[in-house]
Amino acid sequence: MRTVSNVVSGYTHVSERMRAKVQAAIEELDYRPNPVARTLRTGRTGMLALVVPEIDVPYFSELARDVIEAAAEVGYRVMIDQTGHDHERERQLLTGEDRTMLFDGLLFSPLVTKSELLDMHGASRMPLILLGEHDFDGRYDHVAIDNVAAARDAVNHLITTGRTRIAAIGSQPLEEYATPLQRSAGYEAALTDAGMAVRPDYVTTAAHYSRTDGYAAARALLELDPRPDAIFCFSDLLAIGAMRAVFDAGLSVPENVAVIGIDDVEEGRFARPSLSTISLDTPFIARESVRRIIERIEDPESPSTEIVAPHKLVVRESTGGR
Amino acid sequence: MRTVSNVVSGYTHVSERMRAKVQAAIEELDYRPNPVARTLRTGRTGMLALVVPEIDVPYFSELARDVIEAAAEVGYRVMIDQTGHDHERERQLLTGEDRTMLFDGLLFSPLVTKSELLDMHGASRMPLILLGEHDFDGRYDHVAIDNVAAARDAVNHLITTGRTRIAAIGSQPLEEYATPLQRSAGYEAALTDAGMAVRPDYVTTAAHYSRTDGYAAARALLELDPRPDAIFCFSDLLAIGAMRAVFDAGLSVPENVAVIGIDDVEEGRFARPSLSTISLDTPFIARESVRRIIERIEDPESPSTEIVAPHKLVVRESTGGR
DNA sequence: TTGTAAGCGTTATCAC
DNA sequence: GTGATAACGCTTACAA
Are the C-beta atoms of A278 and A153 separated by less than 8 Å? Predict the structure, then answer.
């Protein structure tokens, strides 16, 4: 009945008497609208999906917090999926092959993205925003970070504070992913600009941007001769692991080795020593990506845009900034 | 058409010729089944909701990771919502009042639960599992932790290692929540059993179980006379903050003050010093709660059960276990 | 202002 | 084995 729907939706002109009558019936029958039926009819689920590699990586959980908040403000809820490092899972999501895609749009934040993966999205009409990458080819909306500049800023800081043997942790074993490539490029550019040589043995790989990988990579770096006097890590988590490795090797941060990361997760602020880092504006990323995906949901034909989130150097104890 | 549905679902007896024909048509038209329509018909969304106070608290993000994994193994996806400290949001979820409840069951992991809140669930038929609480009254399924025993084990460890002035951080300003009450009880029981007095000024509150709250509470504790020689924190995050406060006060962990937490998040393993803690078996909690909610979805009338997840003491550097 | 009926895209029932 | 047809529970033209 038309009127019932109106009452439920709190909509237009309904007589007081009728409204009361309907309300009574609702109470009486303990009626609850079925959201699925409503969705089928309206075509909107009111849900967004946020896809990250690992939700327990602080950068992603902090991003998720901000995305959930930003989405709530405009009446959306967020479904979170983690792909692990499973490309098959990413593929299913991108192609829309999954049988439970009950959401209106997809915020895709791959730690690692092969561009082939994106080609798969083609057929699917699901609105898609890419987060964190900076490889804008005009096909998809991006909310990006200037990874090259971020890495360069980090390394420049190390150079400015007098470090001369600067190593890096985080290049990817497989050379096909955008973020690590860009951060590597920024690292090399900073060294080159300062007239310093890029030593291949100073550049180590890390498959998972985890504390454990940072620890292992740093241990290896500390064996080198000459020993690095600074380590630029592609993520804060790597840096946390690297700092622990320095201590376990009987050395000190920042006296013997300076350490800097990227992300600015809260953990780094409480670490000992506190971690210098490149702060990425996650609230900005969250807010803009939610705003953008809703625009796209409402107008699927709107042209792709790229939004670059700001970043800034945060100097703390781990680079000697006491 | 019956046959098409069969083909799509990979179901029963369909002739090869027909199957091929349908497949061709699917390709041709780039047909994609609509998950919402399917859901309306079958009554199953294939989604679970995990509700936590704050997804960026490592304990919850690690739990979320495990829940997503456990759910994926049985063909479910997970929607995550964070309630912040917003009781209104919790109420909407519990009463089923929200307009976007596109999931089959609810895993509710409140940091703080008022029992009144649960009464609200009554009318809703949504399958519900409570996580982390241990206040089993037979109305709802629980996957719980023995909070009293966990707290007691932590404090006993401090006593065993010779600490005599043991403070606590984490009791709740409002005295209505189960977890902090139980942990407080365990703390007091351990002291009393050891013939030690419970000093009210050694018991400090923390509203949010965050690093910041731990830091602030510890700073206050360190001003006391006599100064505590150990701090039992109701969560690892509080402990991380507390350790930092000890250092900033010019003191040392564990020499001057031992610190122990509860949760066993990865951050504690890499902290300096590494954090002693009570390890909660999150994979167990995740697995059992997913198993249980699916049971309940399939048989709404099945009687409520309580599952208690194991915990164990993990001794690391922060309590002098070098 | 209120009632009727169509239709969203599936799956399930039931003849053939 | 295969093809109509109803039904899931809602929203929304359209008619009254």
Answer: yes
Higher pLDDT among residues B172 and A152, named by residue: A152
Task: Measure the CA–CA gap between B248 and A95, rounded to whole angstroms.
Answer: 52
Cα-based distances in Å from B59 to A15, A117, B32, B265, B272: 51, 32, 38, 6, 19
Q: What is the per-residue DSSP string for B4-34? A: HHHHHTT-S---HHHHHHHHHHHHHHT----
Q: CA B69, CA A55: separation in Å to the nearest integer?
A: 11
pLDDT above 70 covers what percent of chain A? 90
* Cα distance between residue B46 and residue B102, in whole Å: 9
Query: How distant, in Å, are the alpha carbons of A86, A105, A286, B65, B262 from that of A60?
Result: 17, 18, 11, 11, 23
Query: What residues form DSSP beta bridges with A306?
Result: A142
Footprint of strand D on the protein (CB under 7 A): A 1-2, 4-6, 8-9, 31-34, 37-38, 40-42; B 1-3, 12-15, 17-18, 37, 40-41
pLDDT top residue among B23 and A157: A157
Residues 224-253 of B with CB under 8 A from A: 240-241, 243-244, 247
Query: CB neighbours (10 Å) of residue B255?
Result: 11
In this prediction, residue A322 carries a pLDDT of 37
A18 touches strand C (CB under 7 A): yes
Give residue B293's pLDDT: 96
In this prediction, residue B123 carries a pLDDT of: 65
> CA-CA distance, A309 to B273, in Å (whole number)?
35
Query: Which of A157, A181, A185, A162 is CA-nearest to residue A171?
Result: A181
> Which of chain D's bases lie under 7 Å from a protein CB?
1-5, 7-14
Question: In B172-275, which ranges are E strands?
Answer: 203-205, 230-233, 258-263
Beta carbons within 8 Å of A317's beta carbon, 6+ residues apart = A254, A273, A274, A275, A276
Helix B236-248 and helix B211-222, axial crossing angle in degrees, nearest 10: 50
Q: Is residue A293 within 8 Å of residue A131, measured between CB atoms?
A: no
| C-alpha distance from residue B318 to each of A251, B242, B268, B279, B311 (Å) | 20, 11, 10, 15, 19
pLDDT of residue A5: 67
What whole-number distance in Å separates Cα of residue B85 and Cα of residue B108? Answer: 14
Q: State which residues of chain B have pLDDT below 50.
A: 322
A191 has pLDDT over 80:
yes
Instruction: Give me the torsion for CA of A169, A174, A175, A180, rounded to 10°.
Output: -40
